[in-house]
Design a protein that fits this description.
The chain is of the alpha/beta class and 365 residues long. 28% of the residues lie in helices and 22% in strands. The longest helix has 20 residues, at 27-46. It starts with a strand and ends with a helix. It binds manganese (II) ion. Manganese (II) ion binds at residues 55, 93-95, 176, 209.
């Protein structure tokens, strides 16, 4: 069978790079809602379940009411067409959590919808699709408002025990955490856990939290399938540092454990240094940040960006710093210093050097 996996939509009226649309809606919330709808529409067309890696919302004391209503509307519709044997699953990420131990979260009321499985508290839970496919679901492990490795190890231990007992044909771990391998590769720092370690016990590991889509291939399982740790990635670029990342969702084949990445079209981030590096045909409807050297260049860039219909832009004027090197001998005379200065990059001027030297010497004496 097939299922769709996506993660980290962060349904929220994000403040940066957003604008208020004529009807009062936040443009970023609309962008995200469109991507999420694309995913659930695809699931309905294929007739397959949807699995989410978490961070459905971006809770800041509370979930935003329109973000909640939009997503809730999609889930109510899903609930009506859901297959009770192969139901949807939504994990809970750190941004969904409302309390310091994660026991309360923004999706609680949605967890009562038939055909959609959402963990109630912040502990490991299990879901079975028929006989052969078993999910161990580990929400973001949080204690005292921060990541807890102890809690994660406790939940993982239970997940391994349960999977070892049930011995399903396909054991899938759905988590919301960084792996060492992905962190090292993308951010050059350590993660929360080793993907290789997870693949000793699970055939497929699906992870939310890290917004980049990537995969770590593992050993072959007893059925000849290649085990994998997949960082699902966010369905749209959420922050400027995600520029250049392809965004979308994946369709997983449970027989082979292979998957297909389906891109989603949405506004993207760009960064340019200097007006000459701007690629006008690529920026329409997107978020553009440009570093320029002068106000005049900034004005020209502004005109260019507005002509090409970018969604939002930022122009930063950073005047070019002139640097030069002057080698001075210890105890150099004032005249020698002034001469070398005038001959250097800093001293470039159309004024008469002899006059400048005289003024300089008079000033120093
Ligand atoms: Mn997260």
């Amino acid at each position: 069978m097939k299922f769709i996996a996506y993660s980290d939509p962060h349904n929220h009226p994000h403040q940066s790079y957003s604008k208020i649309l004529p009807d009062g809606m936040n443009s970023r919330l609309v962008d995200i809602g469109r991507a999420v709808k694309t995913i659930y529409d695809a699931a309905e067309e294929i007739g397959c379940p949807v699995v989410s890696g978490g961070d459905t919302f971006q809770v800041k004391n509370s979930a935003h009411v329109i973000a909640f209503n939009e997503f809730s509307g999609i889930l109510h519709r899903r609930s009506k067409v859901a297959n009770p044997d192969q139901f949807d699953i939504i994990n809970i990420g750190n941004h969904d959590m409302a309390t310091h131990d994660g026991s309360r979260h923004a999706l609680e009321s949605l967890s009562y919808l038939p055909g959609i499985f959402i963990p109630h508290g912040a502990s490991v839970s299990f879901a079975h699709w028929g006989e052969g496919i078993m999910f161990a679901i580990i929400p973001y492990p949080m204690e005292h408002g921060r990541f807890s490795e102890d809690k994660f190890r406790g939940m993982l231990k239970r997940a391994i025990e349960e999977v070892e007992n049930a011995k399903p044909y396909t054991a899938i771990l759905l988590g919301h955490l960084y792996t060492h391998e992905l962190m090292k590769k993308h951010l050059d720092r350590g993660g929360d856990f080793s993907g290789k370690e997870l693949m000793k016990h699970f055939d497929l590991v699906l992870l939310g939290h890290h917004h980049v889509h990537d995969v770590i291939l593992g050993p072959t399982d007893k059925h000849g399938r290649t085990k994998k740790v997949v960082s699902i990635g966010s369905p749209i670029q959420l922050r400027a540092d995600e520029r250049g990342d392809k965004k979308g969702y994946i369709i997983v084949n449970t027989e082979t454990l292979d998957f297909e990445f389906i891109p989603i079209e949405s506004p993207e981030f760009h960064y340019f240094e200097g007006e000459k590096t701007i690629v006008p045909e690529k920026i329409t409807g997107d978020f553009v940040s440009v570093k320029v050297k002068s106000k005049a260049e900034g004005t020209r860039v502004k005109t260019l960006l507005e002509r090409h219909g970018v969604a939002e832009y930022r122009i930063e004027v950073v005047p070019e710093k002139k640097t030069a090197r002057i080698d001075l001998t210890p105890g150099a005379k004032d005249e020698e210093i002034i001469t070398k200065y005038l001959e250097s990059e800093w001293g470039k001027t159309d004024l008469d050097h002899d006059r400048l030297k005289k003024i300089g010497l008079a000033y120093l004496s």
